[in-house]
Amino acid sequence: MSCPLRFPPGFVWGAATAAYQVEGAAREGGRTPSIWDTFSHTPGKVAGGDTGDVAVDHFHRRHEDVELMSALGLGAYRFSVSWSRVQPTGRGPAVQRGLDFYRRLVDDLLAHGIKPVLTLYHWDLPQELEADVHGGSASGGGWPHRDTAQRFADYAAIVADALGDRVEWWSTLNEPWCSAFLGYGSGVHAPGRTDSEAALRAAHHLNLAHGLAAQALRAALPARGRVMISLNPAAVRARTDAPGDLEAQRRIDALATRIFTGPLLRGAYPADLLADTARITDWTFVRDGDLAVIKHPLDALGINYYTPTVVSGGTDNAPLPRHDGHGAGAGSPWPGADRVAFHQPPGDRTAMGWSVDPTGLYDLLMRFHQEAPGLPLFITENGAAYDDLPDAEGAVHDPERIAYVHGHLAAAHRALTDGADLRGYFLWSLMDNFEWAYGYSKRFGSVYVDFTTQARTPKSSAHWYAGVARTGELPALSSDVSAS
């Protein structure tokens, strides 16, 4: 039997969730609608007509859920704050009842020896900011509207003032690519707009929001406070080494990854991105001084990874497949890349239809190890959806998820061995929840949730992951799966 892979002492083992996906209590404590409340209540936008009104009721089951995390041996919990629960209009003073929920959550985590890792924004913009047209376009405000970035910085300062004495790690944004390009480009995420120019504006203003919020956090947090951002960079692969396929790879890498890492890490948007999108926008929404603000020093970079992206150059006389894993919308999330085709690789797939390929995670970790030497890395999301069902005894066995996570942890360990400064891993997700436009039809959790009774049942993957977290060792796969 092969020896277990040992992770370094102090490696952080955690799990993650997002506010709208788990909290529920959509109308309690002064909370007002976010764009996801509006979107999910719009007929035809979410599978099954599902909403996050109740989700998995984490707002009321907070203490039970923290005890569950403790029983599973988690060292950290990455959660997000609902902006409209704290600052309902996106402006003005905080609602203390909203902040009190997060105060109690953080206190519970610390009492159980679990490190809180706070994300300020996981896609739930206050609806009032989206609807604000003052200074914005006729179609609305939101992230294409520059003022939203300043509103976000004000909100960051409010949360930091309330929780900065107890929370060390702060992530500004989660996957700004999804917010910009699925929300304003393809329309498959809230707010459901389909405007390529607005999507590019949104991407810049999300970058600016990160920089302004990072400044606000530095001003409000004690010296031990740490600031990061969680991106979902694409592991883009050309289908062949033909010039057209390599050009497609370059183009999608610019839109998926370098549109964020360029300004964040180097203080500039890539020249090829600007050229690729010149027919859509002249980028004059980037003002003097913006790039210096965005390039605020980071304490770490969060990487979210699930599956690679395979592309080729399309032909003019054939329909282009778009198996990009992001759902079919009325618009495209790839402005300026109309002639790029997306392909589904062969091999195992999750319930999302995403290919299982841990080498993409290794490639990304090594890429950022090389592009940002000295910057610590965290895997802030990684996991898989499968069609989990309880057996006759009520147990939930999910060997596919164990195999998926094992493969990706092995890839992470390989990157560590090859020099990457990887500090931790957060499993997505702690428990089954509202999976955005898929509603409750996709289960990513290591804990099974009966959405009718809200009963929680740790799956075999949760017990397996608890063993990894407890020992810091990744055992051989065969015995783990057979034992599940």
In words, what does this structure look like?
With 484 residues, the protein is of the alpha/beta class. The protein has 16 helices and 15 strands. The strands form four sheets. The chain has an eight-stranded parallel barrel with strand order 2-3-4-5-6-8-11-12, surrounded by four helices. Strand 13 and strand 14 form a beta hairpin. The chain is globular. It catalyses: Hydrolysis of terminal, non-reducing beta-D-glucosyl residues with release of beta-D-glucose. Keywords: Carbohydrate metabolism, Cellulose degradation, Glycosidase, Hydrolase, Polysaccharide degradation.
Arrangement of strands in the largest sheet: 2-3-4-5-6-8-11-12
Q: In percent terms, what proportion of residues is strand? A: 5-15%
Structural class: alpha/beta
Unreliable runs: 134-138
Distance between the termini: 18 Å
Rounded to the nearest angstrom, the radius of gyration is 21 Å
Helix percent reads 25-40%
The coarse overall form would be globular
Characterize the largest beta sheet: strand count, sense, and whether it forms a barrel. Answer: 8 strands, parallel, barrel
Name the average pLDDT: 95
The total strand number stands at: 15
